[in-house]
Amino acid sequence: MIKIRETDHMEYMDGMDKTDHQIMSRVLDMTNKYEPLVFTSEDVRKVLFQENIGIDGLKVLLSPAAQPYLEDMALRAKQETAKHFGNTVCMFTPLYIANYCENYCVYCGFNCSNKINRGKLSMSEIESEFKAIAETGLREILLLTGESKTASPVSYIADAVRLAKKYFSTIGIEVYPMNVYEYAAIKEAGADFVSVYQETYDPKRYEEVHLRGHKRVFPYRFNSQERAILGGMRGVSFGSLLGLGDFRKDAFSAGLHAYFIQQKYPWTEISFSLPRLRPFINNAGNNPNDVHETQLLQVMLAYRIFMPFAGITISTRERAGFRDNVVGLCATKISAGVKVGIGGHGDNEQKGDEQFEISDSRSVDEVRKSLIERGLQPVFTDYVRV
Amino acid sequence: MIDRFIIGGHEFNSRFILGSGKFSLEMTKKVLENSGAEMATIAVRRADSGSSDNIINYIPKGITLLPNTSGARTAEEALKIAMLARELGCGNFVKVEVIRDTKYLLPDNYETIKATELLAKQGFIVMPYMYPDLGAARALVNAGASAIMPLGAPIGSNKGLVTKDFISMIIEEIDLPVIVDAGIGRPSQACEAMEMGCAAVMANTAIATAGDPATMASAFKAAIEAGRMAYLSGLGRVLKDRAEASSPLTGFLED
Amino acid sequence: MLLNGKEMHIDCEKSLSELLTDCGYQINTIAVLKNGEVVSKKEIYTLNVTDNDTIEVVSFVGGG
């Protein structure tokens, strides 16, 4: 029997850095007051003519009233993407180096009660993965672990990052939320980007789905991007797991979160990811809130118009046809050659089970060719280490 | 909701700030009356022991004096001038004007930021005159400014809102009142500044060089009120040329 | 001593307020710098000046 839901999800646990709550308060407050149903087509039409749509504009574009206007939103989004990114699309791949996890998140394949094969790569196994990935031409990598500080401590991640520096110019991490000095250590090791997804910004819903572990603490997770920036990270990524809660409100919260962080730390690179709930091993029917492709696209387009300079990543959770059409339209970063199990690139054997099912398993070369066919420019590296 | 204009905790009923330079003393009084302004800038200069007539006597009671630090070339000089102004008895408002360029009379943002910090620490309500640079505006906020006063065009040029786009950015990103200062040449330009969302407008040369300055002051008053009203009522959409995609961009959705 | 850039002489130490009044200034309409430092209203009446001092007297004029 696992002891669950014993702790207050708004209370920090021992050892967690406590930082300023101003942004969190504003996001929660404004989301509480956001009523997607009050907006009309007239509101949508007005917003699409504004140069700077602002937070009020985001409210409108995320509302059901905007859904019939997807084509107009797409036209506007395409212009913004072209203005800020030209026709370039960054390519990268994620590498899961460990899937041990101490959290119990009801929707996730890695959750601590799920009976899956747990794996953790050694440094030499990691290096062999890097070699295989680098051979495909990729220069940007995202390192992931499940959330277990004991199995995959900060030092392990830092070692992996240091190793990655030999092969890649851009390194991001998507791991458990860390304290400021821990992010600083990872930054020094060579990473520049941090992704932490709040999953849902509704504290009540959050409490329902995060039953145990450090992830249960809502404010600590929320403030991760700010701590990463304080630790010196160059860029941070935001996102909600669409479908976990009220997706319009969750999308709004993530948008606000990014906006306020950008306002407070104007030199930071901002980007969005839009994961949607997908079936995973042992739990194929766990999806109460439906987010179809139409709604997903609506959120992506709204983000592009709201923060034209922010990056938007499209994951392999979506099918190839969807991915191919959103790059150049609103998405600016795409993964390829993806394996979401532990390791498994090139000739290497997969060491642990996947977090979710992927829908687009095309190789780097296939995705690269597809981008070129659509008149887009694949970019493998945007940075030079000085 | 009532539309209120507050700087440094003081409320003003007029969004027109008058520069008092370039007028005869008599004209100053008439212009101020017609403009409805509740704030007027003044400068600090060497006093002539002979003359008994002081500009203060021509500024109607109830108008807030806004001494400026014109003449200062560094933050330290600006501080001195502000302290002198305070000794002259004008309250705590000060407009920071630090110009190191005698050809274009452009404000030095760097010295202005330093001056703002020094003055804010001394309890002044600081209104810095600056070259519209969003980064500098942010620094001014952090330094303790109570408003931001970006120039519309070079002083005295009457060219209007040459820096319009950059002022727009400052209005969008900064929470303090943004007051356009310098370069406004016509009431329509003052109106435009208010339509954009400026909190107030400052003008001097445009009125002083008009054929009938007293009437021009009235015109500016009306224009600024009109502009503010337009801003509050939400400007209508502007029809732009819109390109149409030849085939739908969202035809690929499957569910 | 210098007063607003003009050279003048005083025979002995004098009170600042007396000097200013003697020169025709109305003290309530001016502010003073003594050797580069701002003099408060109160200090005008408590400070003295000697022949080595530099005094600047300012008041408001139209401007800005």
Give a description of the structure:
The complex is a heterotrimer of chains A (386), B (255) and C (64). In chain A, α5 runs parallel beside α6 (154-164). Chain A has 386 residues and is of the alpha/beta class. Chain A has an eight-stranded parallel beta barrel with strand order 1-3-4-5-7-8-9-10, surrounded by six helices. Chain A has one domain (22-379): TIM Barrel, CATH 3.20.20.70. Chain A has helices spanning 22-33, 41-48, 54-61, 70-85, 123-135, 154-164, 180-189, 203-209, 218-222, 224-230, 247-264, 293-306, 320-326, 364-373, and strands spanning 88-98, 104-105, 140-145, 170-174, 193-195, 210-212, 235-238, 269-273, 311-314, 333-335, 342-343, 350-352, 377-379. Chain B has a single domain, classed as TIM Barrel (Alpha-Beta Barrel), CATH 3.20.20. Chain B contains eight helices and ten strands. In chain B, α2 (75-87) crosses α3. Chain B starts with a strand and ends in a 23-residue tail after the last helix. Chain C has 64 residues and is an alpha+beta fold. Chain C has a single domain, classed as Beta-grasp domain (Ubiquitin-like (UB roll), Roll). Chain C is built from two helices and seven strands, in the order βββαββαββ. Chain C has helices spanning 16-22, 41-46; strands at 2-3, 6-7, 14-15, 31-34, 37-39, 48-49, 54-62. In chain C, a hairpin with a 2-residue loop joins β4 and β5 (37-39). Chains in contact: A-B, B-C. Chain B binds chain C through residues 19-23, 25, 28, 41-47, 49-50, 52, 54-56, 65-68, 70, 80, 83-85, 87-90, 95, 97, 204, and chain C through 4-5, 23-26, 28-33, 36, 38-41, 56-64.
